[in-house]
Amino acid sequence: MKSNVPRLGSGVLGGETPIVTGLMVLLAGLPLVLSGYPIYILPQYMAFGIMAMSLGLLWGWVGILSFGQAAFFALGAYAMGLTMARTLPVNGAYLGLIAACVVGALVAAIAGYFLFKAGVRATYFVLATLALSIIVEQIAVSESELTGGWNGLYVDRMAVTVGSAIRIDLSSDAAAYYAVLPLMAALYLLLRWLQCGRFGKVLVGIRENEDRVKALGYDIALYKTAAFALSGAIAALAGAIYATHANFVSPSLGGVLFSTEVVVWVAIGGRSSLGGALIGGIAVASLSNFLSATSPEYWQLALGVIFVLVIIFFKDGLAGLVRRLGREMKRGTP
Amino acid sequence: MSIILETENLTKRFRGLVATEGIGFTLAEGEVRAIIGPNGAGKTTFLSMISGHLAPTLGRVVYKGIDVTAKPVEARARLGILRKFQTPSVFENLTAAENIELAVLRTDCPWHDRAMEVAKTLATIRLTDQSDLPAKFLSHGQRQWLEIGLLLAARGNLLLLDEPAAGMTAEETAATEALVNRLAAEHRLSIIIIEHDIGFVRQLGARVTVLHLGHVLAEGTFEEIAANSQVRDVYLGY
To answer: Distances from the Cα of B107 to the Cαs of A12, A175, B77, B118, in angstroms?
Structure first.
C-alpha cells in the first residue's frame, strides 16, 4: 500500500525559512563589519520589524487590516517608560516588557471582543482601529502629568540581569543590538510556530471562508479576538523595545501617521508571509532613513511611488514576487 | 430506532411572505431522507432553521432531545449538526488535505492521529490522489465531495446536504449516491438531502418528504410519492 498520509500545511506556508535565516545571519554579522550609526539605529528598525509582524499576522493570516497598530506600539512604549521610572525590587525593564504585552493584549482584546461579537467587518473595523490610534494619541497628549504630553517621556536604556549576579547594561550600541536581534528572532519563531499550529490554520481558514469555518463549529469572534490580542501584545512589545532603545516616547508614536506607515511596510514586504512583513518593516524603515538623508525634500514622494508600484505590480508585495520567482525557477529546471 | 431530529410547528415568515408553515418533521438515527419540492417550497429555509442560519418565527428544533432553537450555527455544529451549502463552500486556496485538516482540528482528535484521520476521510470521499491539490483546481463534483468530507471529518452526526448532486455528471451523481448511503450505513450518520434531481432521489432509495408552499405535502417511499396524485400535480409532472 502506498503511503497515503497527505502532506499538511504546504499551501499555507511558503518557503520563506531560508530567506529569513539569511537575514538573521546577515544581521548577526553586521556589527563585525559596520559600526557607529547603523549599529545604533538598526535595533529600532528591528522593533519596527516586530511591529510589522504584528500587523502581518492580523492582515496576512486573518485578513483583518488594522490602522491602529501605532496605538498598541505607543501603549507599550509608555508602559515601558512608566514602569522603568519606578523604583522596584526587581528589574523594572522586565516588568515593563511584561506590562507592555499585557496592556497591548488587554486593550486589543476588549476592543476586539466588542467589535467582533457585533460582527464588525472589513472597512468598519479599519475605521474603529483608526479611532483607537487617535484616542491613544489624544490621551498621551492630555494626560501630560503622567506622560509628559507633547514634551514626551524619557526612558532609560534597560539592562539585562540574571538575579543579582549578572548585569549586562545595554547602553552600548553593540550590546543593545545583540539583545534586540535574538528577541526579534525568537518572536519570529514563536509566531511561525503559532502559524503552523491549530490557531494559525483556523485563522487562515477564517480569511479564506469565514462562513465555512463558522459552520464547522468554530467560534469566529473568539479566534479573531485572540488574533487581535496577540497582535496588540506584539505591537506593544515592539513599542517597549523601541522606547528603551530610543530613550524617548512621544504621543506621535500612537498617531495615525505611524499606523499608516506600518501598513505600507507590510504591503511592500508582503502580507501573506510573516518573513515578508518582518523584512518589509526593517527594509522600508532603513530605506526611509536613507532617502530622508539623501533627499530631504522628495523622500516621502519616492517612498509613495515605491508603494504604489508594488501595489500595482506585485499585489502580494516582495514576498509574492519572491514566491513567483521561485515557481518560475522550478519550472525552468527540468 | 431512536429519533435524532424533530421539528415542531417550524414556521418562517419573511414579513408577509410565508416560507415554511408549521412543519412537523422527524428523522430517525441513521436515516437518509430526501426533501423535494418545487422552487420556493421552503426547502432551503427549512434546512437553514435546522442548521441555525435562520431563526424560525415560530416552532422548535429538537436535536437528540435538546432544544437547539436558540443556539447559534457554531454551537449546533459542535453538537454534530453540519451543513453543506448549495454552492460548494470549501477553502479554495487550501489543498484538499488542508481543507479536511481544518475540520479535524475542530474535533478532539489527538495531534498524532490527525494526518491519519485526514487520509481516511480523503479516501472515503475518493480524493486521495488529489490531496495536495488546492480545492480551486478540483472539479465541481470533487468540490462537492470535499465539502461532504469536511462534515464527516468534523464528526457530524446529522448532515444537512443542500443539493449535493447539483451540476454533476451521471457518474458523479452515482458516486454521490453511493457516498451518501455509505455514510449512513458505515458511519451511522443521519442525513437530510435537498435535491432537485429526481433521478438522484430515486437512486438514493431513501424516504422522501415533499414540501409545497411551505407545507409538508406528502411523505413516504419514492414509489409511494411517485404514485401520489397530489404530488404529481404540483411537482413531478408525470
So the answer is: 21, 47, 11, 12
Q: Phi and psi (nearest 5°) for B22?
A: 55, 50
The beta-carbon neighbor of B77 closest among A9, A209, A217 is A217
Chain B residues with beta carbon closer than 8 angstroms to that of A5: 115-116, 118-119
Which position has the grid cell 474603529? Answer: A128
- State ipTM: 0.92
CB pairs under 8 A between A and B: 96
Mutating which of A12, A204, A216, A316 best tests the B interface, going by the most B Cβ atoms within 10 A?
A216
Please report which helix (H) or strand (E) contains residue A153, including its range. Answer: strand A153-154
Distance CA A187, CA A294 (A): 33
Residue A287, CA distances (Å) to A42, A54, A175 in order = 12, 20, 24
Say yes or no for a CB contact (<8 Å) between B132 and A10. yes
- Per-position pLDDT tens, chain B of length 238: 699 999 999 999 998 888 999 999 999 999 999 999 888 889 999 999 999 999 999 999 999 999 999 999 999 999 999 999 988 899 999 999 999 999 999 999 998 999 999 999 999 999 999 999 999 999 999 999 999 999 999 999 999 999 998 888 899 999 999 999 999 999 999 999 998 888 899 999 999 999 998 999 999 999 999 888 888 887 755 4
Task: For residue A201, give how far its alpha carbon lies from the nearest alpha carbon of chain B (Å).
Answer: 7
Q: Which residues of chain A have pLDDT under 70?
A: 1-14, 332-334
From A138's Cα to the closest Cα of chain B, the distance in A is 39
- B131 min Cα distance to partner chain A (Å): 6
Q: Tell me the CATH number for domain B1-71+158-238.
A: 3.40.50.300
Each residue of B146-178: pLDDT tens digit? 999 999 999 999 999 999 988 888 999 999 999
Which one is the CATH code of A17-29+39-332: 2.30.30, 1.10.3470, 1.10.10, 3.90.550? 1.10.3470
Residues of A with CB under 8 A from a CB of B: 4-12, 198, 201-202, 204-205, 208-209, 211-220
* Closest CA–CA distance from residue B52 to any residue of chain A (Å): 9
Give the other-Cβ count within 10 Å of A37's Cβ.
10
pTM above the 0.95 mark? no
